[in-house]
Write a structure and sequence with these properties.
Shape: globular
Number of domains: 1
Largest sheet: 8 strands, parallel, barrel
CATH superfamily: Divalent-metal-dependent TIM barrel enzymes
Structural class: alpha/beta
Mean pLDDT: 96
Helix content: 25-40%
Order of helices and strands: EHEHEHEHEHEHEEEHEH
Strand order of the largest sheet: 1-2-3-4-5-6-7-10
Radius of gyration: 17 Å
Low-confidence stretches: none
Number of strands: 10
CATH architecture: Alpha-Beta Barrel
CATH class: Alpha Beta
Distance between the termini: 14 Å
């Protein structure tokens, strides 16, 4: 069964304790902590307080969301992120696959990034960590072909994927991608955005209920379903969005 959680970067303006309180009060069970604001890898005191206060409020860490980019940073820079993930109590580390879309990369660039991903997966396997590639524009995993090229070429249980629908592609396209990559996906980023007149508009998750019902059916339920970027970044809306997500997966409040 899916477990419902929150991506901490949804509320970058709030403190880590405020994020924990919001998640707990909304009946969520876990948080993906971002390394950029709330949980810097270099701040052991902050990480320890996140762990202690999360335990007090009954919240777990399901993943550590970093901004490490394969191919742009040396693999040695993964080491402090791995240590931070361990302190937070998770073995899932989110990273990014370069800084170019798959179709913008040359064959040489693709091969180099795959080779780097293979080395990163070997390091992660030794450390008992699973590296999960963000599904995002301006990375090699911005589309199905790029994601499969990386995952299937490396062929390691220590390298897996996140998934989220693309706001720039039609529902049918996103659904087909979800079905194809489902065996490799660890976490889902859940939101409802609409592209209108070239502008992205954040919607209530209830507006995306039909689409997300079908997206969620593509996966086996072992993933974490993590709310990300609620309308207007409004903390007051989290309980409503969490209730919609729980209804989608038929989960009782925590």
């Amino acid at each position: 069964m899916y477990r419902c959680g929150l991506v901490s970067v949804t509320y970058r303006a709030l403190s880590h304790r405020e994020v924990i309180d919001l998640a707990a009060d909304a009946g969520l069970s876990c948080i993906e902590w971002g390394s950029d604001v709330h949980a810097p890898a270099c701040d052991a005191e902050r990480l320890a307080d996140i762990v202690a206060y999360s335990r007090e409020r009954g919240i777990e860490c399901c993943s550590y969301g970093t901004y490490f980019r394969l191919g742009l940073q040396p693999l040695d820079e993964l080491v402090p992120y791995i240590a931070a993930a361990r302190l937070l109590g998770t073995d899932v580390l989110r990273i990014w696959a370069g800084n170019k879309n798959y179709t913008d990369m040359t064959e040489v660039e693709r091969a180099a990034l795959i080779d780097e991903a293979r080395r990163a997966a070997a390091l992660a396997a030794r450390e008992g960590i699973v590296l999960c590639l963000e599904w995002h524009t301006q990375t090699m995993t911005n589309c199905l072909d790029g994601a499969l090229a990386l995952i299937e070429s490396v062929d390691s249980p220590a390298l897996r994927l996140y998934w989220q629908p693309s706001q720039y592609r039609p529902f049918a396209h996103n659904l087909a991608e979800a079905r194809r990559v489902a065996p490799y996906v660890v976490n889902l980023h859940v939101f409802a955005w609409e592209l209108a007149s070239g502008k992205l508009i954040r919607q209530a998750l209830s507006d995306g209920r039909e689409a997300w019902t079908q997206y969620l059916a593509c996966f086996d339920g072992t993933q974490h379903a993590l709310l990300e970027f609620v309308p207007d970044d409004d903390p007051a809306l989290l309980s409503r969005e969490a209730a919609t997500l729980r209804a989608l997966i038929k989960e009782e409040p925590k």
